[in-house]
């Protein structure tokens, strides 16, 4: 399946994104994680969704994939890039779903909880949240020091922001995850007191590398695609 690639200038960075599926079927924004990740990491999942009539937009954050890396990244910078990419591609306000993986759990939640947001379903795949002090810090030693303090994620601003979120919340948790503590999903589920629905989906015998496992497990991909498309988990 061919993707419609495009590029957007956001401040000092050239951000590359693509759309999979017919433009009139655009439904979701996919946000990749940290490390060596990029927008291609969940390409097969997005193709499965597109074949089912559920189109998606994905981007490479600065410093990843095809996007530029002209200045240090940060969570704050990633949020702005996601905001600009979504607004550029979503002139008809069709994007109502955001899928955030790992580090982008924080970004997906903030995007959905903004004033005036039309997002009505947030899906976090082994999603992370961070101490509010880490949000503006450039990635590097200071950021790493802030997030490595024991249980620093308990001080995440997103735990407050999500209290007013009225859409659906799907938290996909890997039971063998050694990166994201299990309590993160529990705290988010408990904090989302205004959500239309909230659910935790546990994946047994799965570690933090859910995206890699999906690439080789069509059945898992189909189950997660079903959770993204609907409110039913089978």
Features:
234 residues, alpha/beta, Rossmann fold, 8-stranded mixed β-sheet
Describe the structure.
- Helix content is 31%, strand content 21%.
- It has 234 residues and is of the alpha/beta class.
- The protein has a single domain, classed as Alpha/Beta hydrolase fold, catalytic domain (Rossmann fold).
- An eight-stranded mixed beta sheet has the order 1-2-4-3-5-6-7-8, with helices on both faces.
- Strand 3, helix 1 and strand 4 form a beta-alpha-beta unit.
- Helix 1 crosses helix 8 and helix 2 crosses helix 3.
- The chain is globular, with a radius of gyration of 16 Å.
Q: In summary, what is this structure?
A:
This protein has one domain (4-229): 3-Layer(aba) Sandwich (Rossmann fold). The chain contains eight helices and eight strands; from the N terminus they run βββαβαβαβααβαβαα. It has helices at 43-51, 75-89, 104-113, 141-147, 158-161, 182-191, 210-215, 218-229; strands at 4-10, 13-20, 26-31, 55-59, 97-101, 121-125, 168-174, 197-203.
């Amino acid at each position: 399946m061919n993707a419609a690639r495009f590029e957007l200038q956001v401040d000092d960075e050239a951000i590359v994104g693509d759309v999979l599926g017919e433009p009139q079927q655009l439904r979701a924004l996919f946000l990749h994680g940290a490390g060596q990740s990029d927008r291609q990491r969940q390409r097969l999942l997005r193709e499965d969704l597109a074949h089912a009539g559920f189109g998606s937009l994905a981007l490479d954050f600065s410093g990843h994939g095809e996007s530029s890396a002209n200045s240090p990244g940060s969570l704050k910078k990633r949020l702005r890039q996601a905001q600009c990419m979504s607004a550029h591609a979503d002139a008809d306000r069709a994007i109502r779903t955001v899928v955030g993986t790992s580090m982008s759990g924080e970004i997906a939640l903030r995007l959905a909880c903004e004033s005036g947001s039309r997002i009505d379903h947030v899906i976090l795949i082994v999603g992370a949240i961070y101490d509010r002090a880490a949000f503006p810090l450039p990635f590097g030693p200071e950021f790493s020091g802030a997030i490595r303090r024991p249980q620093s994620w308990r001080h995440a601003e997103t735990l407050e922001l999500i209290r007013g979120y009225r859409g659906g919340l799907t938290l996909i948790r890997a039971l063998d995850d050694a990166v994201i503590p299990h309590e993160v999903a529990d705290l988010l589920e408990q904090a989302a007191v205004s959500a239309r629905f909230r659910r935790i989906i546990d994946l047994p015998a799965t570690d933090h590398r859910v995206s890699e496992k999906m690439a080789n497990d069509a059945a898992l991909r189909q189950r997660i695609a079903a959770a993204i498309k609907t409110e039913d988990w089978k």
